[in-house]
Amino acid sequence: MKNLIESRPIEKVIRDKYGYKDLEKYELSIEEMIGGFALDHAKYKKIIEEIITGWSPASNSDWFLYIEVLRCLGLCKVTSGSENFVFTIKRKDLKFLPTTESIRRARQALNHKNLCMPTNKIVQERRAKREVAIRRYFQENK
After folding, report:
1. Alpha-carbon span 64 to 106, nearest angstrom
2. Confidence band of 11 (pLDDT split at 50, 70, 90)
3. What is the tally of structural domains in the chain?
4. Which domain holds residue 99?
5. pTM across the whole model
């Protein structure tokens, strides 16, 4: 079967022009992947704890937290206009961006230790309710 990318010439041009090849993951063993996850997870937990200690809105919103993590890592520049925010990420830094899931999991790990808990009561209640709903859904839909 022909590679999907090779079958669509415009995508190959875009990938080549914008350096997408540099973003593709190399073949890693499971152990290498786990080691990388462990290092990243520990690093993100430290960063998140520092961010939330100094700026409480980040404890109430994973979106704010993610942007602030990127900004602290030097991967994102945030500027504000009168009606919007502008997020600038350099193309060369794309391969270094953590996933939103990695940041959420690191924050959640800290929450399970009663660290970095949301400061907003409404957020706490919504997260607790959502956790119950998600557990029930996955128990019923295995």
Report:
1. 14
2. low
3. 1
4. 30-140
5. 0.69
